[in-house]
Amino acid sequence: QISPVLGTIDHNYQAQLKKANQRLVFAIICVSLLVLSLGVLAFYVNKQKKYVTIARNELKKTNEQLEELNKKLSATNEMLKTSNDKLNESNGVKEEYIGQFLGACSHYIDKLDKLRLHVNKMVKNCEYQELYSMTRSSELKEHELGELYANFDKVFLHLFPDFVEDLNSLL
Length: 171
Fold this sequence. Notes:
This protein is mostly helical and 171 residues long. The chain has one domain (2-136). Helices cover 94% and strands 0% of the residues. The protein has 4 helices and no strands. This is Transcriptional regulator. Residues 1-171 form the DUF6377 domain. Pfam families: DUF6377. The chain crosses the membrane at residues 24-45. Residues 52-90 form a coiled coil.
């Protein structure tokens, strides 16, 4: 009587042992797959980390180059601003000088017209001797030269008010 029960117990024990072994094999396979997956994941993460490091280094180099280019660009912009300021100043001087020149020419044309009218009147009145004396004298020329020099000084000192001081500081 015990033997058939022992056979059944043994059979049940063997079945449970087989199930336990199957679970153990399944667990080992699962753990092995997890370890393998972790290994692949670690390899992938390490590779990505290298890519990130390379990209970071390239980005750092690019940023340094950009900073250098920005410094050069700022210096160039400053030089351009200085050049533009000088050009604006030069243009202002030219405009002022042209305006003064046109004013002087207009004034001189008015003087010539007055002289023409005066000479015409003298010819009409047959004042040839006085006309001859007036044209022979260099007084008119000297007077006009004096006005020209005075006008030049006025315009020049208006355009360059510090010229005399700058010249004296150099002497």
